[in-house]
């Protein structure tokens, strides 16, 4: 029982043992503040992919919870994540979203910081006296670790190493996901960004929600050719599964035969990729590489959902940033093959544009229903939100329960972690 | 301006203005069949992100060939897309029209577009720089390319249930 916030002392009332979520969870600004403190400041938060700041001196702006940070690679290649706030009187030291630099200089009074955040120089330091210690006035640094190109940061100095937080199953799925480089390193080709009037947990739920797919994405499915449409009939066929991978993470495997892209490479090339395959042959790629690249173009057959802010979604990264209790920013990062054939990357770009982003055939419908959830919770304050689907036939998986493809097992994994973190 | 086969330069600005206004009117009225008729089939309708000009090798908000334009409009109309049934209502103005280039029967026009959308009783405002590449034909202008650069194309957007 937390004495500082007696209002939320009963966490079971917010997320019950029979998988019901209280309406307050989407709506209470005090609860949101507490979440930012107890979750986003306490755990590993995804901030960037390696390819977004590839060179020495490359940087990009990001966030950890509500806090603006700079992710930068120094001259020795080490990655630093630091709060974008001058230690003099708090001005942001950088407002360029992405770029290359040798230092960060505050525009207000000119304090200059190195790529590792250390305070290098300030104009007229004499007035601070002789005992002013520059070492204690560097930008606030976060602990930073990465796994397979995914960079995470945390304010929590005592947290377990990133790989332990992810766990063996998540690491295995990340490695499988990265196979969609088709033999090339995975690189971020661009991103779609949109903000939605919803609580961040509405998004967290959605990345592991196969149940909505045939309903919300009917118009997308109708725009596909028959063969591709077939692939997305995972609810009809009942193939696939959702599995709790521990620490709030989960996997939703919609297309099990595409979990490992190196499997069944001899399967015939799908109709929609035959033209691309011929183009690659014409460019001189040997047949085994053609098959590998073509297989990789469509992405992996699963969504890997990491608590609290990033999902590896079939062929792209989906990142959420909480803005307020009723607003969340979404980024859909398009991925490609670094140094791979232009034709394959173009196809990946067009596939991404087809579904994702503000003008995709999928995302706008997602955004609409998420907003509907937020609007709907204005009524019936006492009614629970149900995430108990598929509890009836869950079986034990490797690290946690495994449910039907349309089960809400992944949401329960996330809420279990939510509860664990909020009780500490 | 080399060859001015089908183009009457003196009357050009009023002519292209009339065309852009008529197009804007069709888009606000969601008269999409008539909008599709304005296109040359090989043309691309593009909303880029940032200032790229290499649309094929970049991620765009949309980069539609003829088939994608038709699929997009089909999606708007079929009634299964919850975000476009009903869609946001829009009122737009197109102005600050500049004829960039007129060569042969091909004209490049720059203009400003402001769109106000209304849905759920909430209004949003969008501003864009547009570039139209038009071809003068015997039956009037046809669009060979249209590029709409939203002012905040690389910022946080919302989803769009209409065309720019
Ligand atoms: S606020 Fe940065 S130097 Fe004064
Ligand atoms: Fe969806």
In short:
Chain A: It comes from Pseudotabrizicola alkalilacus. Chain A: Its cofactor is Fe cation. Chain A has 424 residues and is α+β, with helices and mostly antiparallel strands.
CATH-derived topology of chain B:
Nuclear Transport Factor 2, Chain: A
**Which compounds are bound in this model?**
FE2/S2 (inorganic) cluster, fe (ii) ion
User: DSSP helix count of chain B?
Assistant: 3
Count every helix of chain A, treating DSSP H or I runs of 4 or more residues as helices: 14
Oligomer: heterodimer
Percent of residues in β-strands of chain B:
35-45%
Residue stretches of chain B low in confidence (pLDDT < 50, at least 5 long) are: 1-5
Broad shape of chain A: globular
Question: In one word, what is the shape of chain B?
Answer: globular
Total strands of chain A: 21
Query: Given this structure, which CATH class of the largest domain in chain A is correct?
Result: Alpha Beta
How large is the radius of gyration of chain A?
23 Å
Amount of helix of chain A: 25-40%
Q: State the domain count of chain B.
A: 1
Protein name (chain A): Aromatic ring-hydroxylating dioxygenase subunit alpha
Pfam family, one (chain A): Rieske
Domain Rieske (chain A): 44-153
Keywords (chain A): 2Fe-2S, Dioxygenase, Iron, Iron-sulfur, Metal-binding, Oxidoreductase
């Amino acid at each position: 029982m937390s004495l500082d916030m007696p209002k939320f002392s009963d966490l079971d009332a917010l997320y019950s043992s029979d998988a019901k979520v209280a309406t307050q969870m989407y709506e209470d600004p005090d609860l949101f503040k507490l979440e930012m403190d107890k979750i986003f400041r306490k755990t590993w938060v995804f901030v960037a992919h390696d390819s977004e700041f590839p060179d020495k001196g490359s940087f990009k702006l990001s966030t950890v919870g509500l806090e603006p940070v700079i992710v930068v690679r120094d001259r020795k290649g080490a990655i630093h994540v630091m709060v974008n706030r001058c230690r003099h009187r708090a001005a942001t030291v950088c407002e360029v979203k992405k770029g290359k630099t040798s230092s960060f200089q505050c525009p207000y009074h000119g304090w200059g910081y190195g790529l590792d955040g250390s305070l290098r120089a300030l104009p007229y330091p004499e007035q601070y006296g002789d005992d002013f210690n520059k070492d204690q006035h560097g930008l606030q640094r976060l602990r930073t670790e990465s796994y397979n190109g995914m960079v995470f940061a945390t304010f929590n100095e005592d947290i377990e190493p990133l790989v332990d937080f992810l766990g063996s199953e998540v690491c295995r799925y990340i490695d499988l996901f990265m196979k969609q480089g088709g033999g090339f390193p995975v690189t971020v080709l661009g991103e779609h960004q949109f903000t939605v009037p919803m609580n961040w947990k509405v998004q967290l739920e959605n990345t592991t929600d196969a149940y909505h797919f045939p309903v919300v994405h009917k118009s997308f499915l109708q725009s596909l050719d028959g063969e591709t449409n077939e692939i997305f009939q995972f609810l009809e066929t009942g193939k696939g599964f959702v599995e709790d991978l521990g620490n709030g993470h989960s996997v939703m495997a919609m297309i099990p035969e595409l979990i490992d892209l190196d499997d069944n490479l001899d399967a015939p090339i799908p109709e929609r990729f035959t033209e691309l395959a011929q183009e690659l042959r014409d460019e001189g790629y040997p047949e085994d590489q053609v098959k590998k690249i073509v297989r990789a173009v469509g992405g992996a057959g699963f969504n890997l959902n990491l608590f609290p802010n990033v999902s590896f979604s079939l062929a792209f990264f989906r990142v959420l940033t909480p803005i307020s209790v009723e607003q969340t920013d979404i980024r859909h990062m398009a991925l490609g093959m670094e140094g791979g054939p232009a034709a394959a990357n173009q196809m990946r770009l067009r596939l991404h544009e087809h579904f994702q982003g503000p003008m995709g055939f999928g995302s706008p419908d997602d955004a609409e229903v998420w907003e509907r959830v937020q609007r709907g919770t204005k009524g019936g304050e006492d009614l629970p939100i149900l995430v108990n689907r598929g509890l009836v036939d869950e079986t034990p998986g490797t690290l946690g329960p495994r449910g039907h493809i349309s089960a809400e097992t992944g949401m329960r994994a996330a809420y279990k972690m939510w509860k664990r973190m909020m009780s500490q | 301006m080399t060859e001015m086969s089908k183009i009457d330069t003196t009357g050009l600005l009023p002519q292209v203005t009339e065309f852009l206004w008529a197009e804007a009117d069709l888009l606000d009225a969601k008269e999409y069949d008539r909008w599709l008729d304005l296109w040359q089939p090989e043309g691309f309708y593009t909303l880029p992100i940032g200032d790229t000009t290499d649309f094929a090798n970049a991620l765009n908000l949309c980069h539609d060939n003829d088939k994608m334009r038709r699929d997009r409009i089909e999606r708007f109309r079929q009634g299964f897309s919850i975000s476009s049934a009903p869609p946001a209502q829009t009122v737009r103005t197109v102005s600050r029209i500049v004829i960039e280039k007129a060569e042969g029967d091909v004209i490049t026009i720059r203009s400003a577009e402001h769109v106000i959308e209304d849905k759920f009783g909430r209004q949003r405002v969008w501003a864009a720089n547009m570039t139209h590449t038009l071809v003068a034909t015997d039956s009037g202008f046809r669009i060979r390319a249209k590029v709409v650069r939203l002012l905040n194309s690389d910022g946080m957007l919302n989803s769009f249930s209409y065309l720019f």
